[in-house]
Amino acid sequence: MKNKLSVALLAGIALSATSCASILTGTKDRITFNSTPEGAKVFHKGIEKCTTPCTAEIPRSLSKQMVTFEKEGFNNKEIKLTKTFNPVSLVNILLGGAIGVGIDAATGSLTKYSPKEYNVELEQKN
């Protein structure tokens, strides 16, 4: 009886301390970037991620996330990445895992990027 109680207690602690969304869906999303014309460099937080057409992993965050497209002879274009609620994080809420929800919030896993593809038209400089 004592062993069963110990196992149940450990299982309860493990469930409340997990961060389901972070574990199950990760902390980054793969996003595809396209530009007209092609060959624009894509920057996130000042770091070059790829050159269009391309796909890059962007870390999730609860804060506003912007990407900038740069190509010589064209005006830079900055776009806001949009996010939606990550339903996997409901598992933490339903199981009462306050620590897990906190971890999901800190890693940005409460949300996910949507859409997963952005098409940008760059304007030529005058």
Automatic annotation (TrEMBL):
Keyword Signal belongs to the record: yes
Keyword terms of this UniProt record: Signal
Superkingdom classification of source: Bacteria
Signal peptide location: 1-21
Stretches assigned to the PEGA domain: 31-83
InterPro entries noted in UniProt: PEGA
Protein name as annotated: PEGA domain-containing protein
